[in-house]
Amino acid sequence: MPILHSIVHLIDKQPDGQPATLHGRDSELAVTPALEDLLESLNDSYNGKPKSWGFFNADAETYPFSVWLAHYLDGEKDFVAFSRQAAEHLKTLMEGNNLSVGGHVLFVHYRHGESDYLAIALLHHSEGVSVTESLDVAPARQLDMGQLHLAARIDLSDWRREDPSRQYISFIKGKGGKRIADYFRDFIGHEEGIDASGETRTLLKAFSDYVESEDFAEEQAREKTETLIDYASNQARSGQPITLDELSELVDESQPKAFYDYIRNKDYGLSSEIPPDKRTLHQFRRFAGRAGGLSVSFDTHLLGSQVEYDEENDKLTIHKVPPALRDQIKRRKE
């Protein structure tokens, strides 16, 4: 991930209603192994957080960040000036939120694959200990990526396209509640454009419907489910979206367009690229079992709705019988 520009500013602010102070850096950070490690750690932590996805609010007067960013990308303003102006704006918004706490604001413009990204994060330190070269134990401060709660990432290449998506900004959902994250969301001018958990649920529902419609054998269905989960989970870990045509090729290499065409023909309303929601993915697995000539398998998210298990009587109840199975039973009775 080549780093093109980066800088850190410090906002001194306590949650006591007192004015905040900006300590701005006057020059960009040099690209060093330490900075590269910091970006890698930032992305690893960021990718593991629940996020919302969206785009810039069109009200540039209320949310001017996108205007300043465009000026920087167009060469009308250098990176240092852009970042200081943005940090000053963030400081002002912090002062209006009594719950906010200052910290080091990191801006990094970097390239990953064929796309440019801007990552912005409010970083905090944790206190620890270290062993010095003279083998003494001494206190040590370090950035605590485990406490990363306010950060955003902008796909600059997507945003600058003629027909950008509605998900070129990702934003960490505030752990401490919406109020704490509000001022940071307003700082970016982030407007939610896609519901990652809802889109992921719809994709999984479409996949379940597809498997049912194709009447795959139990082992085939299990393999295809594992393929989907593995691919989607890897995309989530790397911070990349699920691409429907790529997923379709993985699900069935002999018919690489089959699943993609099924989704489009059934009109599930899915975007071609879906931000994966890790929590939803973790809930999606298949239960399967075979004994005495009976074979049963179903997706775990159906348990409690279409499928119910009575533990006391060891009884499984299916509320919606698959059409193919229902037709076979009916023909047997004739």
UniProtKB/TrEMBL annotation:
The keyword Cytoplasm applies. Keywords: Cytoplasm. It holds the Pfam family NA37. PANTHER family: NUCLEOID-ASSOCIATED PROTEIN YEJK, PTHR38772. The keyword Cytoplasm applies. It comes from Modicisalibacter luteus. It comes from the Bacteria. Its main location: cytoplasm. This is Nucleoid-associated protein YejK. Coiled coil: none annotated. It is found in: Cytoplasm, Nucleoid. Belongs to the YejK family.
